[in-house]
Amino acid sequence: MRVLFTGGSGKAGRHVVPFLIEQGHEVVNFDLTPLDVPGVKNLIGDVTAPGDVWGALTQPADFDELEGGDGVKPYDAVVHFAAIPRIMIKPDHETFRVNTMGTYTVIEAALGVGIRKVIFASSETTYGICFADGERKPEYIPVDEEHPVVPGDSYAMSKVANEVTARSFQQRSKADIYGLRINNVMEPHEYKEKFPFADAAERRRNIFAYIDARDLGHMVDLCLKTDGLGFEVFNVANPEPSVDLTSGEITARFYQGVPQKREMAQDETFYSIEKAQRMLGFAPKVRWRDEV
Description:
It is a single chain. The protein is an alpha/beta fold. The protein has a single domain (2-291), classed as Rossmann fold (3-Layer(aba) Sandwich), CATH 3.40.50. The protein is built from 9 helices and 9 strands. Strands 3-2-1-4-5-6-9 form a 7-stranded parallel beta sheet, sandwiched between helices. The protein has a two-stranded parallel ribbon with strand order 7-8. α5 (190-194) links the parallel β7 (185-186) and β8. α1 crosses α6 (213-225), α2 (50-57) runs parallel beside α3 and α3 runs parallel beside α4 (154-173). The chain is globular and about 65 Å long. 46% of the residues are buried. Residues 3-198 form the NAD-dependent epimerase/dehydratase domain. It comes from Palleronia abyssalis. This is UDP-glucose 4-epimerase. Keywords: Isomerase.
């Protein structure tokens, strides 16, 4: 597929884009800074500027595309990762503005030029736990996509707003628009730097979960290849917890009194990926224990 990928130069994107190229996709990275990866084409632009996004979708991405004489090559899909990646980087109002207007602008332009597949990065923060003021526990475990999303910070608010925006665009267009509630992304070099965590409590804000950046590429590839779901959101994480404790030990130490929705395996993540496994065949391969 020919894919416009926004934010491909970011922490997650710089691993996802090469993975997609390896799967045979043609990827054009639309970002404020280029991505120096073999095979990727780069266009510089701002996702909050409608003219920039529209232009990226309706112009050649490189000189080789002028050779065919058939006009501008259309895109099959848009993958939208560009965003301010967390709170405390920009003022809160700017984080909310960039993330919400960027998503609105990208989806509007994609549908406007006839693209029928949009995949966008939502976040684990939508559940209101990651950036909570003080400790906030889930309403139940494991946390699945039905868990309430009531955040208290500008970043998570923007991601919840983006899901509403995406659902509304899908309702009127009937295109496929999939949101990925991505957990804490780990790059390959981070395993030896961070794992194993000396204090498991460091991971409570991430619901003791993580996702390898390469496995996130696998998830995006599955979404590109899966049609007809309409609007859906999916948790994205590794099947196992990010700490060297069993699920029972984590529950006893951190989740006493929290309702348990179902029985859990002893090495199962508390950030449920059952939906992605069932509907998409999601099968992450990189485990932190194999990387340290």
